[in-house]
Design a protein that fits this description.
It is found in: Cell membrane. By secondary structure, the chain is an alpha/beta fold. The protein has 10 helices and 14 strands. Helix 1 packs parallel to helix 9, helix 2 crosses helix 3 and helix 4 runs antiparallel to helix 10.
Length: 342
């Protein structure tokens, strides 16, 4: 077991103890003298997406503020780019001497699998599944299904129609974990609830995370059909779901970040809550481990017990059901309620 440092990032201080999975070992490579040269590659949307990538950026910013001196290079993926471009991006950073290199998003898994073995003295980390194995690769993972179970419980408790929805950016295994957890949470509270599911693109098409117009249309159809709460897991496309909720006078649920604070001000009042993934904490913890030479390879899973996933109270819309949510959280943590990832 490896204890990760506690960090204040964003609006909540979360003390974490992360456990590295099987095959992990302490990285013994010493960084070069001088500032730590950190490379960070964002998924589509990059810094400023008000969701997934911004959570990683917050962890990086906190590390720059509180840890050792750093020189940072940030690069973002482009919509529709071929997989080879991600490989080239990671390779270029490694060749330029950046160490560590953090990849934000599962779409970089093939790139790290290809480049990691060719640069054995460079440390790599990737946020989210699938797992990439290697003695110099750390996998920063989240029990998204657990946090999404709570979102499903919120939707079921707040819905007046018993009809709720889910909009996913693409039909990938990662996003499916959110859907599966959400459905379990809805059915746990209201077994008779109707759940409408829409994905914006197929499993290998990342453009679904950059199509707010398409997300708006999908959510609008759900609201018109009777849904009154829709959970979006769609990156920058989630803005379209919020617009549809505003137009329908209904609720939406955010993801990854406290979107009632980060979304456009005119739609914040329709965001019931957000399922936060503490990507900021994971990125900070990883950089702290690099800085003090204790970083590990292998899997590090941030779950409800570790505070790696949670819900937000901004706006005060769910304070009335918070005691029930806390009860469910404890039941999950202690194994009395089982949440399955798929």
């Amino acid at each position: 077991m490896r204890a990760f440092r506690a960090v204040m990032a964003g609006v909540v201080a979360v003390a974490l103890t992360a456990v590295a999975g099987c095959g992990g070992g302490v990285e013994t490579v010493s960084p070069p003298p001088g500032p730590l040269r950190v490379g960070l590659v964002y998924d589509i949307g990059g810094r400023g997406d008000k969701s997934y990538n911004d959570a990683a950026a917050a962890g990086l910013d906190e590390a720059k503020r509180t840890l050792t001196r750093m020189r940072v290079r940030e690069v973002a993926a482009a919509p529709g780019e071929p997989a080879a471009r991600k490989v080239e991006r990671v390779r270029a950073l490694a060749e330029a001497g950046y160490d560590p290199i953090i990849a934000v998003g599962y779409s970089y898994a093939p790139a790290l699998a290809s480049i990691g073995p060719k640069f054995p003295r460079t440390r790599f980390a990737i946020v989210d599944e699938p797992t990439v194995s290697g003695p110099n690769i750390t996998n920063l993972l989240f029990a998204s299904e657990q946090g999404s179970f709570l979102m499903g419980a919120v939707a079921a408790m707040k819905s007046r129609t018993g009809d709720v929805g889910f909009v996913g950016g693409n039909r990938s295994p990662l996003v499916r974990k959110f859907e599966v957890g959400y459905v379990q949470g809805v059915k746990h509270v209201n077994p008779r609830a109707r759940i409408r599911i829409a994905y914006l693109t197929g499993p290998h098409d990342l453009s679904g995370f950059e199509r707010p117009d398409k997300a708006r249309q999908a959510a609008r159809r759900m609201y018109r059909a009777g849904a009154d709460v829709v959970y979006q897991v769609a990156g920058a496309s989630g803005a379209g779901v919020f617009r549809a909720a505003k137009k329908a006078g209904a609720w939406a649920i955010g993801v990854d970040y406290d979107q009632a604070k980060s979304a456009d001000p005119d739609v914040r009042d329709v965001i019931l809550t957000s399922m936060i993934k503490r990507i900021d904490v994971a990125v900070y913890d990883y950089l702290a481990g690099v800085a003090d030479h204790t970083v590990t390879s292998g899997r590090v899973v941030y779950d409800l017990k570790l505070g790696g996933v949670d819900y937000t109270l901004t706006g005060g819309h769910i304070t009335d059901i918070q005691p029930r949510l806390e009860q469910l959280k404890q039941e999950i943590i202690h194994g009395r309620v089982k949440v399955y990832p798929g």
